[in-house]
């Protein structure tokens, strides 16, 4: 039976990339549908009426939204190369850190990118607090998943690419030598065969984020 | 404490209630430890150094934090009875999506109802009701979310029910008038012992909220 596996994504979405990685890790073939978020397709709006966002996975007609939900669905459905281990304590640990990334790291990095003055100072202070915990979590581990790549690595994955881009565009140092374990992880993660060469085109990303940065920091 | 289960919690926390319900559903014996959130214990700070929040579930001396992570953990460890997540992967994904929706939307819009006034409060009420209506739509004609037995999304959402009276008083509106199906679902859940004994008394929650408002300097 021909299986329908469709992924609605965009070329730059860090959330969509998580799903791309999961498919690569498990060796799953899928059809990629690239969306223009300024002109969302009827299909996307039909499959994700609640948030109207990417990524959306459609598997045999069933739509699944929210990248972390999609990752767990993929792991539940395709059993090869598991993204989460069997041990419930370990599963809880990776889920905890995935949530930390979504609710703490991502909003803070956005605040760093978009604010200035006192707001930027506050965002940086929050960021430093967050990174302290992340650095601590990496002690004694090769990856966030432990010995193997896990859901937590895929969720944190954006750091390995976007931090460099944000630093280049903003001139700020966002992850510095105070975080050697994190810096090492960013390198190790990027070099993994399933991750290597999956990043969106660097020049295109710089252009995109340069424009966004200028929007939030208009020249005085 | 080997093999023991301890729950660090606060009586009015809807997040703590989720864990209480899950533990009750699975008939797990545990030690409930009421925490003073204005004067956090060393144990709480040690067990949840990242967020310093309740609930914290301690099992065999190991802490698990974040209520939905805890509920999934409980479901996975005590998998011999009262399954909370369905077996089918697509139904599981649907349950995770809606529990995540509750997490993203309900606490925030609910809090803004009692923290704000005037136009801001009207906007918060509108958003809160819109979110509940989306949940009502998802419930459909089912007795519980997902169309099987009492499960994950029910556990994630029903604790908010004991805060509805407080929200209604602060916002001067009726949630039942707007979302009768959802209130019927909540009352159905309250028929279950695990829910009835885990949720706080709505009047007490309202009293607590009034104290909170004073502490925040909100009229």
TrEMBL record, chain A:
A Pfam family annotated for this UniProt entry: GST_C
EC number: 2.5.1.18
InterPro entries according to UniProt: Glutathione-S-Trfase_C-like, Glutathione-S-Trfase_C_sf, Glutathione_S-Trfase, Glutathione_S-Trfase_N, GST_C, GST_C_Tau, Omega/Tau-like, Thioredoxin-like_sf
Catalytic activity: RX + glutathione = an S-substituted glutathione + a halide anion + H(+)
Subcellular location: Cytoplasm, Cytosol
Superkingdom of origin organism: Eukaryota
Domain GST C-terminal as annotated: residue spans: 87-220
Coiled-coil intervals, chain numbering: none
Keywords attached to this entry: Detoxification, Transferase
Residues in GST N-terminal domain copies: 3-82
Family: Belongs to the GST superfamily. Tau family.
PANTHER family: GLUTATHIONE S-TRANSFERASE, GST, SUPERFAMILY, GST DOMAIN CONTAINING, GLUTATHIONE TRANSFERASE
Name of the molecule in the record: glutathione transferase
TrEMBL record, chain B:
Enzyme class: transferase
Localization: Cytoplasm, Cytosol
Protein family membership: Belongs to the GST superfamily. Tau family.
Superkingdom to which the source organism belongs: Eukaryota
Its EC number(s): 2.5.1.18
Domain GST C-terminal: 88-208
Organism: Hibiscus sabdariffa
Recorded catalytic activity of this chain's protein: RX + glutathione = an S-substituted glutathione + a halide anion + H(+)
Record's signal peptide: none
Domain GST N-terminal: 3-82
Protein name as it appears in the record: glutathione transferase
Cited InterPro entries: Glutathione-S-Trfase_C-like, Glutathione-S-Trfase_C_sf, Glutathione_S-Trfase, Glutathione_S-Trfase_N, GST_C, GST_C_Tau, Omega/Tau-like, Thioredoxin-like_sf
Pfam families the UniProt entry points to: GST_C, GST_N
Keywords carried by this UniProt record: Detoxification, Transferase
